[in-house]
Specification:
By secondary structure, the protein is α/β, with parallel strands linked by helices. Helix content is about 25%, strand content about 25%. The chain is globular, with a radius of gyration of 19 Å. This is Carbon-nitrogen hydrolase family protein.
Length: about 350
């Protein structure tokens, strides 16, 4: 452990084993109505299997790409996305969570992860801390720790009220995320919209970069549970992506990495669905409750190496995205509205 850091002592004295489910989604970019219907179908499948924890992915209402329609696809915090989470939670008597582009009353858009409880109450919200690459064009970062208190009877047999941790996509790549959640949570609710390295030339080089990128997408999710000492439910996207590349004449053609999985607090993957398996649901029983973290935190900003192309894109698309967001995405507070609901064709 670094800097004299010490992991928190275990929390609830008694843990509880429940069935968890993670959704792998084939979203249509910015087509909110379609994506909400698709999420409901897949979550209902999870609920029918008896899942009491159901994770939807990051950007479950819109998907993600460098697509101008996303500037107008954000929903209000009390709109149809949170209504879906609440409806599913009541229907299946489950915890249901996921993140979406959320336009708040101040006119800013944030990548907000909401968690609904079995009675339909919204238990809490986490705003992703930093947009990744071209995501900077569509939302700003947040500053909360990602801790969401759960009802004492959420899982029936725990001797103290449990706490969920929320984190999405490249938050799982950063040491700071693990530090703020480490030893403080009984369950990690996570998701991603992680895209591939494009197959440009020289083909062999880009194929090697993509092989490492695909492995990192899986490892970032599975390993995070060991860094924080809690089981993890990770939902993700699959399917093709075709869009412009910011500030270049190039076109991005790739796909989403998938890596939908459920891991125990020691990083053992209990169930997973690869990108090639397409949309669907994975389920596994997990023991909700914190354990002593099994992995020390490194003395560096990133938990995993990003690779040359993602590193370059991180910097240049961040610079591009801040101006694009100010010009095209942010709106004055009085213009906040749930519109348009479908993709611009």
């Amino acid at each position: 452990m670094t800097g004299g850091e010490r992991a928190s002592a275990p929390g609830p004295a008694r843990s509880e084993t429940v069935l968890a489910a993670a959704v792998q989604l084939d979203a249509r970019i910015a087509d909110v109505d379609h994506n909400l219907r698709r999420c409901e179908e897949l979550a209902d499948d999870a609920g029918a299997r008896g899942a009491r924890i159901i994770a939807l992915p990051e950007f479950f209402t819109t998907g993600i790409a460098f697509e101008p329609a996303l500037s107008h696809a954000a929903l209000p915090p009390g709109g149809s996305a949170t209504a879906l989470l609440q409806r599913l939670a009541v229907r299946h008597h489950a915890l249901v969570g996921g993140s979406f582009l959320c336009r708040d009353d101040d006119g800013e858009v944030r990548n907000a992860y909401f968690l609904a409880g079995p009675d339909g109450a919204l238990l809490g919200r986490h705003d992703k801390d930093l947009p990744t690459m071209w995501e900077n064009s569509f939302y700003i970062g947040g500053g909360d720790p990602g801790l969401i208190g759960l009802p004492p009877d959420a899982f029936g047999g725990m001797s103290a009220a449990p706490t969920a941790g929320a984190a999405v996509c490249w938050e799982l790549m950063r040491t700071g995320t693990a530090r703020r959640l480490r030893g403080r949570v009984d369950l990690m609710m996570t998701g991603s919209g992680w895209w591939t390295v494009p197959q440009w030339r020289p083909r062999g080089l880009f194929e090697r970069w993509e092989a490492r990128n695909e492995a990192t997408a899986r490892r970032a999710a599975a390993d995070f549970s060991r860094y924080v000492g809690a089981p993890l439910v990770h939902a993700a996207h699959c399917g093709p992506v075709d869009c412009r590349m910011p500030w270049t004449p190039l076109r991005y053609r790739g796909r989403l990495e998938g890596a939908t999985l459920i891991a125990d607090s020691h990083g053992h993957v209990l169930a997973e669905r690869t990108r090639d398996e397409g949309p669907g649901v994975v389920t596994a029983p997990i023991t909700v409750g914190r354990t002593r973290p099994g992995e020390s935190l490194p003395r560096r900003y990133w938990l995993h190496r990003r690779g040359p192309l993602p590193t370059a894109a991180w910097h240049y698309q961040r610079a591009h995205g801040r101006g694009y967001y100010a010009a095209h995405t942010r709106t004055p507070a009085e213009e906040d509205r749930e519109w348009p609901r479908t993709a611009v064709r």
